[in-house]
Amino acid sequence: MQAHLMEWLNLGVRWIHMIVGIAWIGASFYFVWLENNLDRRNPKEGLAGELWAIHGGGIYHLTKFKLAPPQMPEHLHWFKWEAYTTWLSGVALLCVVFYANPALYLLPPGSTLSPAVAVAFGLGSLAVAWAAYEILCDSALGERPALLGLVLFGLIVAAAYGFSQVFSGRGAYLHVGAIMGTIMVGNVFRVIMPAQRALVAAIAEGRTPDPALPAKGLLRSRHNNYFTLPVLFIMISNHFPSTYGSAYNWLILAAIAAIAVLVRHYFNTRHNSQRFAWALPVGALAMVSLAYVTGPAPLATSASLQYQPLPETALGGQRFDDRPATQPATPEPAAKTATPPATAAATPAAQPGTGFDRVHGVIQERCAVCHSAHPTSSLFSSAPAGILFDTPEQIQQLAPRIQAQAVSSQIMPLGNITQMTPEERKLLGDWIAAGANIRE
Predict the structure, then answer these.
(1) From its phi and psi, is residue 300 left (phi > 0), alpha (psi between -120 and 50) or beta?
(2) Where are the domains of the chain?
């Protein structure tokens, strides 16, 4: 029941996060588009520009004041709760998915970092990132937006590399996204909203508004706009193990983020000219190149596969295999296992039988505890992503996914909670390379 409740809690929080995130990003895209498409030719006195638009069967006339109207309107719409609820629901999702059970998604197999320290590191990084961003924006770099943007990009890439050395690939990606999301909501809360309140207060008091504050808010708003596409990719990245599961996951994330920023820049500037039209084909070519360079490498030998089992304590002492509790989780050196004692339990890779018999044994012991119509793992009430390994036909049909996630990237089983060995991964890879036959 607990696993079932956690699944629905995950669903509810994720759905809320998606809904309010769409509202926030939609508003960001619209107002940047509006700013870029204002007709600034011969504006009326006090206006910065105007725009005529048609949508939903109606015609709209929008105007922007240079600073503010002579007096405030009776009804003024503010845009803030979309940002606040997106960040709050995102942090809640981070807690539900990653922090509630750090050993499952957050920490890589074999990590010596305690769950409490890992969670503290993740949350602390959000505060440090915001403080560093504030310092940079308030420095002399704030007067040079393009250079500031390059510095910020470099620091985010550095953060991605740092997270990849501490967290799992999924954990690293999501914390990079959390850093950008924190900067974005911090911009709204600490800069954009105060600037707008100061503007409204000045009008209400009959004072001339300070033009520096709206200009500062506009710069932060543009930062938010360029962050949106990389953050959107990170939100869906857990579906693509060839990105976060790669040994160079931080570099792949940097490349995709650069492509996303380039594409966003094209859409932000195309109203003036088409001088950045090359951004779209270049972005497409870059994505194709990434798909090529991240392709699966030739199957490694068992000696080259690295394996570090997850400590029992990380899962509260829960075991998924048949080893006695006193038996070491780490396989002994090859010299000692060349002639195993007759009483030692054979791993599935060493069991007698046909090729598929051995593969089936590995799948049932290491994978089907979660990926079954009736999971035996207490962590899941239903099979994650609906992936089932109950029948040979299902296993054969899912062979490409097994290759991608258990052999090439080795991100499955999650946290290696079922202690899949390097020899078993090689067995699966050899079987798939030979045609994934279930009749032999």
Answers:
(1) beta
(2) 2-70+79-293, 312-331+346-433
